[in-house]
Structures are given as C-alpha cells and as structure tokens.
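Dear Dr. L.,

I hope this message finds you well. Following up on our conversation about the binding site, I have prepared a predicted three-dimensional model of the protein together with N-carbamoyl-L-aspartate. For your records, I am including the exact sequence and ligand specification that went into the calculation, followed by the structure tokens. Please feel free to forward this to your student if that is useful.
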Amino acid sequence: MAKQILLRGGRVVTPQGVQRLDILIRGEQIAAVQPDLMAEAPLAEVRDVDGFVVLPGLIDVHVHLREPGGEHKEDFTTGTCAALAGGVTTVFAMPNTSPPITDRATFEEVAARAAAKAVCDYGLYIGATPHNAEEAATLCRQAVGLKMYIGSSTGDLLVDRFGAQIEHFERYPKDGIIAVHAENEEAVQYYAARGQHRPPICAGLATAYVLALAEQTGHRLHVCHVSTAYELTLIHEARRRGLRVTCEVTPHHLFLTTEDWARLGPLGKVNPPLRTPQEVEGLWSLREAIDMIATDHAPHTLAEKQGASPPSGLPGLETMLPLLLTAVHEGRLSLPDIARWTAQRPAETFGLARKGRIAAGYDADLTLVDLDAEWTIGNEGLYTRCGWTPFAGRAVRGRTAHVYLRGRLAFSEGRVLAEAGSGRAVMLE
Ligand code: NCD
Ligand code: ZN
Ligand code: ZN
Ligand code: ZN
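The resulting structure of the complex is given below.
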C-alpha cells in the first residue's frame, strides 16, 4: 500500500474560505480533506502542521528558465529550486531560449533536459515563428500552449505580420491556448527612436488587436503580463461577449511602479515596463478581472543588467508569495484570492485536471506558509542563479515554510530536498 501521511490541523485554504482541516496524503495524491481524520487513517505517519496556512501548490504559467543557451543565468534545476522556495510546484517554461523552442526536435531535446533536471513539475510552451504554424500545431498535445510574441522582447521570437499571425490562429488546434506577448512592435520602435521605453499605448494597442484576432477566429487566447487598466477592461468586456480569453498579471506590475524603476535604474527594466503609481492603482481597482498571477520570472545577471545595453526582465519566483501574503495582511487580498489566482485558475485554464485545489483526488502539491513571519527580502540566499531581486530591501510578512510535491516533502525550512529529475511533465486534459 502507498505511503500515507496525515497533515494535522493546518489552516487549509479552499475556494470556500480558510478552515482547520486534516489532509490525508496517500502516495502522490490527496485521499481526504476533513476536520478530523485521525480515526480514518491509523497507519498514516502523522505530521502536525498546526499553525501553518496550507495553500494549493502554486502554478506559475510564465517563467523563463533559460535552458538551453542561457545557463549562466538559470537552468532547469536552479529555476525550479527557486520555484519551490517560492511555494511554486508547477512552472510553465517559455520558449525564447537559444536556440528557441520552435520545432519538434528542439522541443523534445528541451523536454528531455527538463525531465532530467527539474525539481518541480513543469510544462513547456512551443514558440511561434513566421514560418512554423504547421509544425507548432502538431505539438499541441505535448506543449502547454503556443507562445506568440507579436511585439519583440528578450530573444529573437517575433511574429509581427498579420499573415503569419492569422495562420497560427487558424491552424493551432482550437482547444489549445495561444499565449501572447502583446506590445505593438511598430509603436515599440517608434518610442525607442525617441528614447522612450514602451509607454502604455504599446500594450493597449496590441491587446485590442489580439483580442480581435481571437474573436474573429474563435480561438482561445491568454494575454501575458497585462500591465494597464485599459487592457483589463478590454479583456473583461471581451469575456462578457463570450470570448474564451484569460489574462495574467505579474507581481512586479502590482508591487512596483515607475518610482521604483527610477531608483532601480536598469535593474528595473522589463517588458512591459513598470507603470506609474496611478496606473498600478488602476490595476488593483480592476483586480476582479484578473484571472491569474504569473511571475514572468526572467532572470538576467547583474553584469548584464548593469552593462551597456541592459536586457529587459526581472526574476520573481521567490518573491511572489511573500508579496501576496503581505497584501493579505494589508487587507488588499484574501487567502482564497491567492489560491484562486495562483493555483485554481491556472489549472482550470490550461487543463491540469489533478492540480490547483486541495481536495480528494488531486495531486498532493501543498505549500505551507508561516503567515506571520516578518522578514526583509534580500539578494542573499536566493536559489535563482541570477542572484538578485528587484524587491531587495522590502519588508514582507509571510514565508514559505514547507512544500509538498505529489506527496513528498520537496522544500523545508529554506532547503530544497527534492532531487534533480523528480519534477514531472504535466498532462493536459
Ligand atoms: C522576458 C525575458 O527576459 O525572457 N523579458 C521581459 O522583460 N519580460 C521576455 C518576456 O516575457 O517578454
Ligand atoms: Zn513577454
Ligand atoms: Zn516572459
Ligand atoms: Zn496577520
């Protein structure tokens, strides 16, 4: 019989609220969640988790793990260790690597590396190019989605012409998700020539455009890193008309502003850029329209960020959860909001049938947090290979204490316990 573990007395976060419940784990899955399971499972190893808040393991649908080609900044092991340290048990890796993941051979090669090196569960996107619509479509069962950059960002992936875009929207299977980096390339170049980095109109134009593409073709759409209230409003309206569209917002667009960018300089450079405090307030006020929080974890080394042409991107895996928990203490969010945004909606959207909830039959992916731990985020002790965070110096309240991945304690008290290769590719239904 599979090993049984009884987590006793945690404050378990479910869509209904926060309740004191026991969780019985059998093998890799949750067997039962009830107020008192001691009598039910006499053979289980009992672990007292009284005092911890138990969240469903976080699912981050947007990370850059830099493998292959960028292993000096991150690889599948360091990036997934950072994930576990941040309470994240599943990551979806982006294809803007070198070479980019845009054909079957590269996809399979990268999948093999992930299988050998990841310490948390993972999925991979296939990247869209102007010429790979046919081949990308054949990968829709293995990939978690098709990633299309309609505006340029880090790497060379770009599909900024209508003909190529429509080909992908028509060919990629209709139950698959097209995830889009929505900034208008012509506007990006126009402002770059005038010394301005991607003002809000770049994102606004592109999101309006890609919503039209999705609506006219009837395709599912996921808009990456929405950074303005205008985009959220458009997405909300499109959904009310019946369009199957979802969106993510990053922690940096919710917890940093242009004021931080002024202080951070090139370390604060990201696509889409950090927004004004008023714009960030606008995002918060429309938070009901947000489907999920995803980090867009995009590590670059300090030397690169401080060099002559600093790349865009910020690491985020290890800081997302403490920032969200701090917002709970401030009364801006609830614990069920966090569970919905970081686990339930990502799982439902992308079709991870056994993840995203703490309920019988689901994978035992569990993130136990010490809600009242007060600490200051710093650059020391991070698992991400880039070794810095734009949130250094920020006082937060709430910390990842223990993380279970499919029934095994994978992270505990600051240490990653899972071995390389114990992460598994997700299956979509
Ligand atoms: C990302 C990266 O560095 O890979 N950079 C960023 O500024 N967000 C690419 C991306 O997500 O656009
Ligand atoms: Zn992007
Ligand atoms: Zn990204
Ligand atoms: Zn409190």
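In brief: The first helix runs from residue 76 to 85.

With kind regards,
A. P.
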